[in-house]
Amino acid sequence: MGLPSLHDVAAPAKLNLFLHVVGARDDGYHLLQSLLVLIDWLDTLHFECRDNGRLQRHDLAMRLPDDDLCLRAARALQAASGTTLGVDISIDKQIPSGAGMGGGSSDAASTLLALNRLWGLNWPLARLQALGLDIGADVPFFIGGRNAFVEGIGERLSRVDVPRQWLAVLKPAASVETRAVFASPALVRDSAAVILSRFLADAAGSLDFRAQGFGRNDLQPPAQALCPDVAKACKLLQERFGNSRMTGSGSAVFARAGTGERPLATLPAELPPGWVARMCRSLDAHPLAGWATD
Asked: Can you tell me the mean pLDDT for 139-150?
Protein backbone atom coordinates (compact mmCIF):
# COMPACT_ATOMS: atom_id res chain seq x y z
CA MET A 1 0.00 0.00 0.00
CA GLY A 2 1.34 3.43 -0.96
CA LEU A 3 1.87 6.35 1.36
CA PRO A 4 -1.13 8.65 1.96
CA SER A 5 -1.73 11.92 0.12
CA LEU A 6 -4.04 14.92 0.27
CA HIS A 7 -5.00 16.85 -2.84
CA ASP A 8 -6.83 20.12 -3.55
CA VAL A 9 -6.26 21.53 -0.06
CA ALA A 10 -7.57 25.11 0.02
CA ALA A 11 -5.78 28.13 1.49
CA PRO A 12 -8.01 31.24 1.34
CA ALA A 13 -6.91 34.86 1.52
CA LYS A 14 -8.12 37.32 4.17
CA LEU A 15 -8.99 41.01 4.33
CA ASN A 16 -8.57 43.32 7.31
CA LEU A 17 -11.86 45.21 7.48
CA PHE A 18 -10.09 47.53 9.89
CA LEU A 19 -6.67 47.51 11.54
CA HIS A 20 -5.64 49.63 14.52
CA VAL A 21 -2.18 49.79 16.09
CA VAL A 22 -2.85 50.21 19.81
CA GLY A 23 0.64 49.92 21.28
CA ALA A 24 3.94 48.08 21.22
CA ARG A 25 5.64 45.44 23.34
CA ASP A 26 9.12 45.70 24.85
CA ASP A 27 10.38 43.24 22.24
CA GLY A 28 9.37 45.60 19.42
CA TYR A 29 6.24 43.75 18.28
CA HIS A 30 3.26 46.02 17.66
CA LEU A 31 -0.06 45.36 19.36
CA LEU A 32 -2.94 45.31 16.91
CA GLN A 33 -6.70 45.07 16.80
CA SER A 34 -8.36 43.99 13.57
CA LEU A 35 -11.42 42.35 12.09
CA LEU A 36 -10.25 39.61 9.70
CA VAL A 37 -12.56 38.07 7.11
CA LEU A 38 -11.86 35.07 4.88
CA ILE A 39 -12.51 35.44 1.14
CA ASP A 40 -12.77 33.03 -1.77
CA TRP A 41 -9.47 34.00 -3.42
CA LEU A 42 -7.61 30.72 -2.90
CA ASP A 43 -4.28 28.99 -3.22
CA THR A 44 -4.46 25.21 -3.71
CA LEU A 45 -1.97 22.80 -2.15
CA HIS A 46 -1.29 19.10 -2.69
CA PHE A 47 0.55 16.85 -0.22
CA GLU A 48 2.32 13.52 -0.85
CA CYS A 49 3.67 11.79 2.25
CA ARG A 50 7.33 10.64 2.19
CA ASP A 51 8.86 7.94 4.41
CA ASN A 52 12.41 9.38 4.36
CA GLY A 53 11.78 12.59 6.31
CA ARG A 54 12.53 14.92 3.39
CA LEU A 55 10.50 18.12 2.96
CA GLN A 56 10.18 19.38 -0.60
CA ARG A 57 8.07 22.04 -2.30
CA HIS A 58 7.07 22.21 -5.95
CA ASP A 59 5.70 25.40 -7.51
CA LEU A 60 2.82 24.86 -9.94
CA ALA A 61 2.24 28.56 -10.72
CA MET A 62 4.29 31.56 -9.62
CA ARG A 63 7.81 30.99 -8.28
CA LEU A 64 8.04 31.18 -4.48
CA PRO A 65 11.08 31.90 -2.27
CA ASP A 66 13.29 28.88 -1.70
CA ASP A 67 12.36 28.71 2.00
CA ASP A 68 8.76 29.91 2.16
CA LEU A 69 6.32 29.76 5.08
CA CYS A 70 5.00 26.35 3.95
CA LEU A 71 8.39 24.73 4.34
CA ARG A 72 8.96 26.58 7.62
CA ALA A 73 5.61 25.28 8.88
CA ALA A 74 6.37 21.71 7.80
CA ARG A 75 9.82 21.85 9.37
CA ALA A 76 8.44 23.26 12.64
CA LEU A 77 5.73 20.58 12.92
CA GLN A 78 8.15 17.81 12.01
CA ALA A 79 10.61 18.94 14.70
CA ALA A 80 7.97 19.54 17.38
CA SER A 81 6.21 16.22 16.80
CA GLY A 82 9.31 14.08 16.31
CA THR A 83 7.83 12.34 13.27
CA THR A 84 10.18 10.61 10.85
CA LEU A 85 7.83 11.26 7.92
CA GLY A 86 8.35 13.91 5.27
CA VAL A 87 6.26 15.42 2.49
CA ASP A 88 6.18 16.76 -1.05
CA ILE A 89 4.12 19.97 -1.15
CA SER A 90 2.89 21.26 -4.51
CA ILE A 91 1.44 24.78 -4.53
CA ASP A 92 -0.83 26.38 -7.12
CA LYS A 93 -0.22 29.97 -5.98
CA GLN A 94 -3.00 32.37 -6.97
CA ILE A 95 -3.12 34.87 -4.08
CA PRO A 96 -0.81 37.80 -4.91
CA SER A 97 2.30 38.13 -2.79
CA GLY A 98 3.11 41.38 -1.03
CA ALA A 99 -0.59 42.20 -0.92
CA GLY A 100 -1.51 42.16 2.78
CA MET A 101 -3.95 39.34 2.03
CA GLY A 102 -2.15 36.73 4.14
CA GLY A 103 -1.39 34.32 1.32
CA GLY A 104 1.85 32.99 2.79
CA SER A 105 0.36 32.66 6.26
CA SER A 106 -2.70 30.92 4.85
CA ASP A 107 -0.51 28.43 2.98
CA ALA A 108 1.40 27.76 6.21
CA ALA A 109 -1.82 27.25 8.17
CA SER A 110 -3.22 24.82 5.58
CA THR A 111 0.12 23.01 5.63
CA LEU A 112 -0.06 22.55 9.41
CA LEU A 113 -3.66 21.33 9.23
CA ALA A 114 -2.94 18.98 6.34
CA LEU A 115 0.26 17.50 7.81
CA ASN A 116 -1.42 17.05 11.19
CA ARG A 117 -3.83 14.75 9.36
CA LEU A 118 -1.39 13.24 6.84
CA TRP A 119 1.19 12.35 9.49
CA GLY A 120 -1.46 11.06 11.93
CA LEU A 121 -0.44 13.47 14.70
CA ASN A 122 -3.95 14.44 15.87
CA TRP A 123 -2.77 17.64 17.52
CA PRO A 124 -5.62 19.84 18.83
CA LEU A 125 -6.36 23.23 17.33
CA ALA A 126 -4.77 25.23 20.16
CA ARG A 127 -1.47 23.37 19.86
CA LEU A 128 -1.30 23.99 16.11
CA GLN A 129 -2.14 27.67 16.65
CA ALA A 130 0.63 28.07 19.24
CA LEU A 131 3.13 26.58 16.79
CA GLY A 132 1.75 28.71 13.97
CA LEU A 133 2.22 31.99 15.85
CA ASP A 134 5.99 31.52 15.67
CA ILE A 135 5.68 31.23 11.87
CA GLY A 136 3.48 34.26 11.21
CA ALA A 137 1.07 36.53 13.09
CA ASP A 138 -1.89 35.60 10.84
CA VAL A 139 -1.31 31.84 10.95
CA PRO A 140 -3.39 31.23 14.13
CA PHE A 141 -6.32 33.06 12.53
CA PHE A 142 -6.29 30.83 9.45
CA ILE A 143 -5.94 27.70 11.59
CA GLY A 144 -8.90 28.84 13.68
CA GLY A 145 -11.01 28.76 10.55
CA ARG A 146 -13.53 31.51 11.37
CA ASN A 147 -13.86 35.24 10.78
CA ALA A 148 -12.49 36.89 13.89
CA PHE A 149 -11.70 39.97 15.91
CA VAL A 150 -7.94 39.65 16.42
CA GLU A 151 -5.88 41.26 19.16
CA GLY A 152 -2.34 41.30 20.49
CA ILE A 153 0.19 40.14 17.92
CA GLY A 154 -2.38 37.75 16.42
CA GLU A 155 -2.77 35.27 19.26
CA ARG A 156 -6.08 36.48 20.74
CA LEU A 157 -9.03 35.52 18.55
CA SER A 158 -12.74 36.13 19.11
CA ARG A 159 -15.10 34.66 16.54
CA VAL A 160 -17.33 37.18 14.76
CA ASP A 161 -20.18 36.23 12.43
CA VAL A 162 -19.96 38.48 9.38
CA PRO A 163 -22.78 38.36 6.79
CA ARG A 164 -21.82 37.08 3.34
CA GLN A 165 -20.91 39.91 1.01
CA TRP A 166 -19.13 40.95 -2.15
CA LEU A 167 -15.68 42.49 -1.79
CA ALA A 168 -13.88 44.05 -4.75
CA VAL A 169 -10.12 43.55 -4.40
CA LEU A 170 -7.46 45.43 -6.37
CA LYS A 171 -3.73 44.67 -6.16
CA PRO A 172 -1.26 47.09 -7.79
CA ALA A 173 1.86 45.69 -9.42
CA ALA A 174 4.05 47.23 -6.70
CA SER A 175 4.25 45.73 -3.23
CA VAL A 176 4.95 47.24 0.16
CA GLU A 177 7.55 45.93 2.60
CA THR A 178 5.81 45.26 5.90
CA ARG A 179 8.92 46.07 7.93
CA ALA A 180 9.20 49.48 6.28
CA VAL A 181 5.56 50.29 7.05
CA PHE A 182 5.95 49.47 10.75
CA ALA A 183 9.24 51.41 10.91
CA SER A 184 7.73 54.53 9.33
CA PRO A 185 7.60 57.66 11.53
CA ALA A 186 4.19 58.34 9.96
CA LEU A 187 2.68 55.25 11.62
CA VAL A 188 0.16 55.93 14.39
CA ARG A 189 1.07 53.59 17.25
CA ASP A 190 -1.39 54.64 19.95
CA SER A 191 -4.90 54.24 18.57
CA ALA A 192 -7.52 53.91 21.29
CA ALA A 193 -8.23 50.26 22.06
CA VAL A 194 -11.61 48.90 20.99
CA ILE A 195 -13.66 47.07 23.62
CA LEU A 196 -14.92 43.96 21.85
CA SER A 197 -18.26 43.70 23.69
CA ARG A 198 -19.03 47.35 22.99
CA PHE A 199 -17.95 47.00 19.37
CA LEU A 200 -20.29 44.06 18.80
CA ALA A 201 -23.15 45.79 20.63
CA ASP A 202 -22.71 48.94 18.55
CA ALA A 203 -22.73 46.86 15.36
CA ALA A 204 -26.11 45.45 16.51
CA GLY A 205 -26.12 42.68 13.93
CA SER A 206 -25.25 44.96 11.02
CA LEU A 207 -21.58 44.11 10.64
CA ASP A 208 -21.91 44.19 6.88
CA PHE A 209 -22.39 47.98 7.11
CA ARG A 210 -21.15 49.39 10.38
CA ALA A 211 -18.17 47.25 11.28
CA GLN A 212 -16.60 47.54 7.86
CA GLY A 213 -17.06 51.29 7.88
CA PHE A 214 -15.62 51.36 11.39
CA GLY A 215 -12.23 52.87 12.11
CA ARG A 216 -9.43 52.74 9.56
CA ASN A 217 -6.25 50.92 8.66
CA ASP A 218 -3.46 52.63 10.61
CA LEU A 219 -0.91 51.11 8.23
CA GLN A 220 -2.43 52.81 5.18
CA PRO A 221 -0.90 56.33 5.46
CA PRO A 222 2.72 55.09 5.73
CA ALA A 223 2.07 52.47 3.04
CA GLN A 224 0.74 55.14 0.67
CA ALA A 225 3.82 57.27 1.33
CA LEU A 226 6.03 54.30 0.44
CA CYS A 227 3.87 53.15 -2.51
CA PRO A 228 1.74 55.84 -4.23
CA ASP A 229 -0.06 53.11 -6.20
CA VAL A 230 -1.94 52.21 -3.01
CA ALA A 231 -3.61 55.62 -3.07
CA LYS A 232 -4.31 55.27 -6.81
CA ALA A 233 -5.96 51.88 -6.26
CA CYS A 234 -8.08 53.26 -3.41
CA LYS A 235 -9.21 56.12 -5.64
CA LEU A 236 -10.28 53.70 -8.39
CA LEU A 237 -12.42 51.67 -6.01
CA GLN A 238 -13.77 54.73 -4.22
CA GLU A 239 -15.05 56.12 -7.52
CA ARG A 240 -16.72 52.84 -8.40
CA PHE A 241 -18.07 51.57 -5.08
CA GLY A 242 -18.11 54.63 -2.83
CA ASN A 243 -15.64 53.16 -0.34
CA SER A 244 -12.13 51.73 -0.22
CA ARG A 245 -9.49 50.63 2.28
CA MET A 246 -6.10 48.96 2.24
CA THR A 247 -5.83 45.48 3.74
CA GLY A 248 -3.02 44.48 6.10
CA SER A 249 0.22 46.27 5.29
CA GLY A 250 -0.76 46.48 1.60
CA SER A 251 -0.51 46.92 -1.26
CA ALA A 252 -3.93 45.37 -2.03
CA VAL A 253 -7.03 47.46 -1.39
CA PHE A 254 -10.70 46.48 -1.27
CA ALA A 255 -14.20 47.92 -1.36
CA ARG A 256 -17.50 46.69 0.04
CA ALA A 257 -19.57 45.79 -3.01
CA GLY A 258 -22.92 44.73 -1.56
CA THR A 259 -24.66 41.78 0.06
CA GLY A 260 -27.16 40.84 -2.65
CA GLU A 261 -27.02 38.25 -5.38
CA ARG A 262 -24.85 40.51 -7.54
CA PRO A 263 -22.21 43.15 -6.74
CA LEU A 264 -23.29 46.78 -6.71
CA ALA A 265 -20.88 47.58 -9.55
CA THR A 266 -18.27 45.92 -11.73
CA LEU A 267 -14.51 46.07 -11.44
CA PRO A 268 -12.57 48.55 -13.58
CA ALA A 269 -12.20 47.14 -17.07
CA GLU A 270 -8.81 48.72 -17.80
CA LEU A 271 -5.99 48.58 -15.30
CA PRO A 272 -2.31 49.56 -15.38
CA PRO A 273 0.09 46.77 -16.43
CA GLY A 274 0.68 44.21 -13.70
CA TRP A 275 -2.37 45.18 -11.64
CA VAL A 276 -4.79 42.41 -10.63
CA ALA A 277 -8.46 42.76 -9.71
CA ARG A 278 -11.02 40.21 -8.56
CA MET A 279 -14.58 40.30 -7.28
CA CYS A 280 -14.62 38.09 -4.18
CA ARG A 281 -17.17 36.72 -1.74
CA SER A 282 -16.58 36.52 1.97
CA LEU A 283 -16.56 33.04 3.50
CA ASP A 284 -18.45 31.98 6.61
CA ALA A 285 -15.72 29.48 7.46
CA HIS A 286 -12.36 28.21 6.25
CA PRO A 287 -12.68 25.24 3.85
CA LEU A 288 -10.58 23.20 6.33
CA ALA A 289 -12.61 24.14 9.42
CA GLY A 290 -12.94 21.03 11.56
CA TRP A 291 -9.68 19.43 10.40
CA ALA A 292 -8.36 19.73 13.96
CA THR A 293 -10.29 19.27 17.18
CA ASP A 294 -10.87 22.10 19.66
From this structure: 96
